[in-house]
Amino acid sequence: MKAISRNEPGPAGPLTEIQAPLPVPGRQEVLIEMHATSVNPADYRFLDSFTASGSNHPSACPLIPGIDFAGIIVSTGSGVSRFKPGDEVFGLKPDTEGGTYAEYTLAGENELALKPRGLSFDTAGVLPAAGLAAWQALACAQVSSRDRVLVHNGAGSIGSFAVQLAKLRGATVITTVSGDELDLVWGIGADQAINCCEQNFAGILGQSIDVVIDTSGGRILNESFAVLSPGGRLVSAAGLPDPVKAAQQGITSAFITPASVPFQLAELARLTVEGRLKPLISHTFPLTEEGVRSAYLLYESGQVQGKIAIKIR
């Protein structure tokens, strides 16, 4: 099967198109004919982290990146009971495994959900990682209709989902953007948008926010403490909030990484088919060396609205 591999760090490569052996599903696994995936930071940072720490890569090289998947089940392990060959599915693999930048991939039975007929493979391929991160961040923060929620980078991959899902919970949603993204975030439901390139969000908002959903990390994450009212909640998908600051201000804080939950996947798909959730796909690239390299470079540029899709079939 064709696959894109990496055996050295760096977002732009080197990437190599290879012929890899067809995977064989284990007892609780399914073999999926891949139709679509998408770009996530985990796709290239996984190998970087091992290189930086001086550790050997834990699995056989070359590494095939990719954690989102959408496709058709070809075969199943003997212990699989919920799915059968021919089922159209989508889901999320652990970022320690990867393997979706390929014509076929393996997934555990508990990592996927059925894809509704009204949902395209390309859309299903961008839902899992970013959609689950937003869903789980909002759940962790226990967002309700009483809350004023600040979502950072509301035009980004996770942020665009978080804005929409917070609105579906009835919250008042404020978001930060950069450049000319104001119309986009208003279009997906934001009540207020702040251009953080020209304005100081902390100075504008004061301590008026109940929940911050951070997707940026670094300076933005640290400055977010200033806008939270006493008893507020700060959940980041991009870095660990300072526990000392949180304790000093009486704030509940958490760092989350998305995990595959079939019920949540099914709900994201249902909301999308119903038109209540609109995944933003800014660019689509083919599964080739040049295609994936271009996708990585575009993602690293920071000039992406929503998600970058990788089309396989």
Give the gist of this structure:
The chain contains 10 helices and 15 strands.
Care to describe what's here?
The chain has ten helices and 15 strands. By secondary structure, it is α/β, with parallel strands linked by helices. It has two domains: 2-127 and 279-311, Quinone Oxidoreductase, Chain A, domain 1, CATH 3.90.180.10; 130-255, Alpha-Beta Complex (Quinone Oxidoreductase, Chain A, domain 1), CATH 3.90.180. Strands 3, 4, 5, 6, 7, 14 and 15 form a seven-stranded mixed beta sheet that branches. Helix 3 packs across helix 4. The longest helix has 13 residues, at 128-140.
Radius of gyration: 19 Å
Task: Tell me the β content.
Answer: 25-35%
Strand elements, count: 15
Note the gap between the termini: 13 Å
Provide the CATH superfamily of the largest domain: Medium-chain alcohol dehydrogenases, catalytic domain
Low-confidence stretches: none
CATH topology of the largest domain: Quinone Oxidoreductase, Chain A, domain 1
Task: Just name the CATH architecture of the largest domain.
Answer: Alpha-Beta Complex
Which structural class matches the secondary elements? alpha/beta
Mean of pLDDT: 93
Q: What string, H for helix and E for strand, traces the elements in order?
A: EEEHEEEEHHEHEHEHEHEHEHEHE
CATH class of the largest domain: Alpha Beta
Features:
single chain; 313 residues; Quinone Oxidoreductase, Chain A, domain 1; 2 domains; six-stranded parallel β-sheet; 29% helix
What's the helix and strand layout?
Blueprint: E1 2-5, E2 16-19, E3 29-38, H1 42-53, E4 68-76, E5 88-92, E6 104-108, E7 112-114, H2 121-124, H3 128-140, E8 148-151, H4 157-168, E9 172-177, H5 182-187, E10 192-195, H6 201-205, E11 209-214, H7 218-223, E12 228-236, H8 243-249, E13 252-255, H9 262-273, E14 281-286, H10 289-301, E15 307-311
Parallel strand pairs: 8-9, 8-11, 9-10, 11-12, 12-13, 14-15
Antiparallel strand pairs: 1-2, 3-4, 3-6, 3-15, 4-5, 5-7
Helix pairs in contact: 3-4
